[in-house]
Amino acid sequence: MRNILHVIDTTGPGGAETVFIELLSRLDKRRYRSIVVICGPGWVGGELQRRGFS
After folding, report:
1. Whole-prediction pTM value?
2. Distance (Å, rounded) from C-alpha 45 to C-alpha 31?
3. pLDDT over 70, % of the chain
């Protein structure tokens, strides 16, 4: 299993944030372990939690 560090410094709902979340959602969880860093609470964190990321 490969580890991937995903970092985003914005938390609002926009194009980059949507692509960020879609990328995380579509990675094969059997092959990749995603480690996510966001700069604070906001839409991105809420959406990730809603989709089952911790």
Report:
1. 0.85
2. 23
3. 100
Query: DSSP string spanning 19-53?
Result: HHHHHHHHS-TTTEEEEEEESSSSHHHHHHHHTT-
> Nearest to residue 19, comparing CAs of 29, 30, 28, 8?
8
Query: Is residue 40 left, alpha or beta, with left meaning phi > 0 and alpha meaning psi from -120 to 50?
Result: left
Tell me the per-residue pLDDT of 23-43, one tens digit each, with 9 for 90 and over: 999 999 999 999 999 999 999
**Those residues with Cβ within 8 angstroms of residue 18's Cβ, 6 or more apart along the chain or in another chain:** none
CA atoms within 13 A on the CB side of 37: 5
User: What tokens were used for 27?
Assistant: 């990675």
